[in-house]
Specification:
single chain; mainly alpha; two-stranded antiparallel ribbon; 7 helices
Amino acid sequence: MKRRILLPLLLLLTLLPASADNRFPVLKSLVLPGWGEYSYRSESAYIFWGSEAALWVGFAALRYSASIQNRDMLSFSFLHAGLQQYPENDQYWADLGNYSTYLRHRERMLENRTPDNIWDPDYSWEWDSETARDIYRSLYRKKELTLLSSEFVITGLVVNRIASMINVRYLKNKNLRLSAFALPRAGGGVLQLGLNF
């Protein structure tokens, strides 16, 4: 639910006009990398906008690919493991690939003294062959790797924002000059610091 609200909100913010005033450039870069740079008329704004767009497209593509892989995995398990129904739990799909039958899973959970981890008999399964189970495990790992890759893209989105905020601080302070003047005097001295914008 949170994702469904966050994504349209971010897309709406990207449609806002990127005004060229210098108010809140760091906050602008946090919302949309490149927006703060645009406030200073910097060409680097286009680099941040481009990387942001590429990251969002990559994230959407990976999530779409994971949903297709999940559908393939589900269809395969219905055909070869005799599934009738399944719980909404990620651990179930891992157990489905780790045990050849529901009874073997049940025995192992009882041996480990973890009866709470036994699935309801309505979710029982039995693979028709070890080859089918190996194919399923391959499909499962591929889907999980795709989901993990999409989480790395989220990290890229965060890093892009941090880099943009640092760049905005640099652009803001680029014309800043510090000068120092020291004059010795009897019994001490005078140190004068100046800051020029």
